[in-house]
Amino acid sequence: xxxxxxxxxxxxxxxxxxxxxxxxxxxxxxxxxxxxxxxxxxxxxxxxxxxxxxxxxxxxxxxxxxxxxxxxxxxxxxxxxxxxxxxxxxxxxxxxxxxxxxxxxxxxxxxxxxxxxxxxxxxxxxxxxxxxxxxxxxxxxxxxxxxxxxxxxxxxxxxxxxxxxxxxxxxxxxxxxxxxxxxxxxxxxxxxxxxx
Length: 196
Description:
41% of the residues lie in helices and 16% in strands. With 196 residues, the protein is of the alpha+beta class.
């Protein structure tokens, strides 16, 4: 299945976007419809839900919608000390093998933390909705990672004598811990980070 490039862009509001062929062989036109049905490809691709979520995330990230989401996150944060907030984020990431920036009621956050728990990973979960400066942290994360969604997960790594951290996205996007686990890549990353 091809990514849904342009599916969420402002141009798709002006003209229908041609989506992949439906089972009948006819193409579906999606922009003017309220719902688009995507057939399950689980037999051909066991990663279908994750690959669909990643395709949508890529489309959103490349669209004007992402700039609007970032601007909203920054506006919701109000006035805050950007340097001090960024320093907090950098310290959490540098001093922990895995950091999950989370929202306590978010189902994707709960799923990502449950997945890390099932792996036996040591991680630090920061519930942004329960922190006085949580909105400021989310705004700085949006600037840092170009994404506003949670969970926002960082995993440390080591290369020779050096130490680095990488943002692996969320639960099922960017690529996300669920996608990494299903590809057999999560456990080695957690091991390298010292989280297992």
